[in-house]
Amino acid sequence: MESSHIKQFSNFLTANERSEIIEYVNTINHKSQAENVHLSHLIKKINGNSHMYDISKTDSTKEITSFQSGGNDVMKEELPDIFYNLIDRITTTVNIPKENMFLQIVDMDEGGTIGGHYDAAIDGYINYKCNISVLSDDYIFVVDGEDLTIKENDLYCFEASLYKHWTLNPFHSRRILLSFGFILPYSALGRNENDPRVRLSKRIEKIFQKDR
Length: 212
Ligand SMILES: [Fe+2]
What we know:
The chain has helices spanning about 15-25, 35-45, 60-70, 80-95, 195-210; strands spanning about 5-10, 50-55, 100-110, 125-135, 140-145, 145-150, 155-160, 165, 175-185. By secondary structure, it is of the alpha+beta class. β5 and β6 form a beta hairpin.
């Protein structure tokens, strides 16, 4: 299904991939720091842990992963191959480059919600998120007021630094989400500097930077 702001692909994850990922997440021994103002606000609401992996290790992914993990709380461990296979499949499915990206694994307890927010970006780039729901109740995900139902194994991609996004209702069980972040130049998504949405995001980015 495709809406104007979100690309959604049902059953993107196979049953085997899903169990392999859950098994891996169960071995992660890490509690997220929550010193950053924006992250602590978000984590309190998400009621769980966030594990940040810098895949590309470029200047921009270093900046984003350090900021979004609450101050350099980036995982040192190497990820299993399955994650790299997924990155390959995502980038061919939505036709985006994979050279400048990171992964955030979110592991939430019962009762969490994601409050409305924009993801941080870097000037000249869009933070494009491709999320996979690995373990979860069905949930309503809202992007810029437009909502859709996300089921387990769905992949959904959207411009996270350009549109405000949130979940509608608290979750009733544990939830594991893979959030692949692609730092893309405007042109990779058919946008440019003069796009009204890009200009709005630059104003939002300035507000973010005040707290950095
Ligand atoms: Fe987000």
